[in-house]
Amino acid sequence: MEIGKKLKNLRNIKNLTQEELAERTDLSKGYISQIESQHASPSMETFLNILEVLGTTPSDFFKAPTEEKVLYKKASQIEYDEYDKGYVLNWPVTQSNEFEMEPLLLTLRPNASYKNFEPSASDTFIYCLKGSVTLELGENTYNADSGDALYFKADQIHRLVNRTNKEARVMIVVTASYL
To answer: What's an example of a GO molecular-function annotation for this chain (predicted)?
Structure first.
């Protein structure tokens, strides 16, 4: 592992100059440069101080990077047909509740609705793929047809309704809620 290069990368991520890092660690800019270029090795105390200023821990610094999953094949997706409730749920990214966004494909049967959602700090994006849906957001209603998009703060009670006699399908993407 090239510690100096990794420290430099972390410093750049934190948007600090060598001079700013030097000031915060009581080191010289030249010494920071030598560490980053692998020409000097800091003492353990100095290294730990640099990590603290850069906002990380030794365990996180030395942790091997994990490969980020990018492709989610159809075979790994989960689908629930809630026939008696009038909708089908499809999660294209099964562990999305661990991420910043949670995508969902929702199929609403004719004259069906999807549950009421309590207010949260989430942002919600809905894209109408097929048919028409109505968003009930607090006291307001918004009608979206195929190709229309809805985007809102989920800070009011809300739900989706299909008020037509044809099936509707939407993609929903919700951000993580930090209430």
So the answer is: DNA binding
